[in-house]
Amino acid sequence: MVTEYESRKLISLRKLKKLQINTKDPVLKYVDELLEDQIINRLLSYKGYMPSKRDYFPSHFFKAELLKTLMYPEISYRKYCTEEYFGLDRKQNRAFIGLPLHKKQMIDHTQLSQFRSSLSFSQNINLLTSILFHVRRSGMLKNCSIHGVDSTELVNDNPRPLFSIKVGKKKIKIYNDLDCDCGKRRYKRDKSPYVIGYRMHTLTAIDVKTNHSFPLISLIAPANHHDSLFLKSLIKLAQVIGIEMKLIRTAEGIKQSNSNPFCS
Predict the structure, then answer these.
(1) Is residue 238 packed enough to be buried (19+ CB in 10 Å), middle (13-18) or exposed (0-12)?
(2) What are the Cα distances from residue 109, in Å, to 44, 86, 89, 214?
(3) Residue 72 domain-assigned (yes or no)
(4) What letter does residue 226 receive in the DSSP assignment?
(5) Total structural domains in the chain?
(6) What are phi and psi of 224, to 5 degrees?
(7) 225 lies in which domain range?
(8) Looking at the structure, do residues 178 and 119 belong to the same domain, yes or no?
(9) Are residues 197 and 155 in the same domain?
(10) N or C terminus: fewer CB in 10 A for the chain?
């Protein structure tokens, strides 16, 4: 779809307009040049979507999410969607998202929340495939011949359970976030051996020359699920969207196979 879109257009008006904005941050500038708003709108639109009757497009919400992740991950969405970050003096932020620089038009935090919850699994996968296509074409993954799989902890803000019940001989604790759970973490000198929350399992591409890692796909599950349960799921998902893997490094060692990457 990306190549078909690029073969049709003669010139990108959005790119010409963005060249007039002095983007000081190199990360935002790179991401902005990597993405194409019209492709994002096609991937994230829904049935009956009519651009002519909308003030905001899916690309606006998607880039607002990207901006928060890249620049302001520590603040809440309610604080993020204010003039402090989207005021008329915040030209770099507004230009990155695509908001007008002469109007007080801002995205509300409830709109961002509704946008995230409305995305289907297929839309997320299509978006991921599109971004990986651009990243690979940019040359960032040119020398990556090794992939890695590992997990990181996402701790719940309130680790105390709401209540506990006994089912048979097992005692089950219920937390304020029903999807999270208590799991055992790797040994850390200054932390408890248990963590309450989630674990994010990520497949990365590793550049053997620079040792830099590029995250490709992530799956999130309760913390009481072992890392090995998601190895095959991550690899199969990567293969479905066209990522070729021959050598995979996990936290437990290196696994290699010409035909089956699951074999040790």
Answers:
(1) buried
(2) 19, 12, 20, 29
(3) yes
(4) -
(5) 2
(6) -85, 5
(7) 142-256
(8) no
(9) yes
(10) C
CB of 203 closer than 8 Å to CB of 149: yes
What backbone phi and psi angles, to 5 degrees, belong to 132?
Answer: -65, -35
Kindly compute the dihedral angle of the four CA atoms of residues 252, 254, 257, 260, in this order, to the nearest 10 degrees: 30
Buried b vs exposed e over 81-115: b needs ≥16 C-beta within 10 Å?
beeebbeeebebbbbbbbbeeeeeebbebeebeeb
CA 21 to CA 139: how far, in whole Å? Answer: 25
C-alpha 144, offset from chain centre: 20
Q: Are residues 247 and 148 in the same domain?
A: yes
- 221, 48, 212: which is closest to 146 by C-alpha? 212
pTM greater than 0.85: no
Residue type (1 letter), 2:
V
pLDDT at 8: 56
Is residue 101 a contact partner of residue 50, using CB atoms and an 8 Å limit?
no
Q: Which residues of the chain have pLDDT under 70?
A: 1-23, 51-53, 140-145, 159, 185-192, 208, 251-264
Nearest to 230 by CA among 195, 250, 199, 201: 201
